[in-house]
Amino acid sequence: xxxxxxxxxxxxxxxxxxxxxxxxxxxxxxxxxxxxxxxxxxxxxxxxxxxxxxxxxxxxxxxxxxxxxxxxxxxxxxxxxxxxxxxxxxxxxxxxxxxxxxxxxxxxxxxxxxxxxxxxxxxxxx
Length: 126
Description:
Elements: E1 2-6, E2 9-12, E3 16-24, E4 31-38, E5 45-52, E6 60-62, E7 70-75, E8 80-86, E9 94-101, E10 115-116, E11 120-125
Parallel strand pairs: 2-11
Antiparallel strand pairs: 1-3, 3-8, 4-5, 4-9, 5-6, 7-8, 9-10, 9-11
């Protein structure tokens, strides 16, 4: 599985930014895609994830720090997941990584994701 993340850049606090991550390769029909982020000098942390299966219809999960501001969504036809970042704050500045879990663990732990994208930098100015 290959993941290609895009959409990072500079955002104003209170503005918006949308990240995309396209999955290709042997993705199968059911999986979880997630977003993590890593700020300078900090551990990589969970941001959000979304399940992807024919029976679940998709469920989402968010870190408390982004709940109500960020929205994760997917496009089944493109095997792409999006992270809409509304009202970003300077503390959201980080490299954002998309991640892929074939075993549907629906987890907020980085070790439960088998594949990772290259990361895209998001900088939020105050």
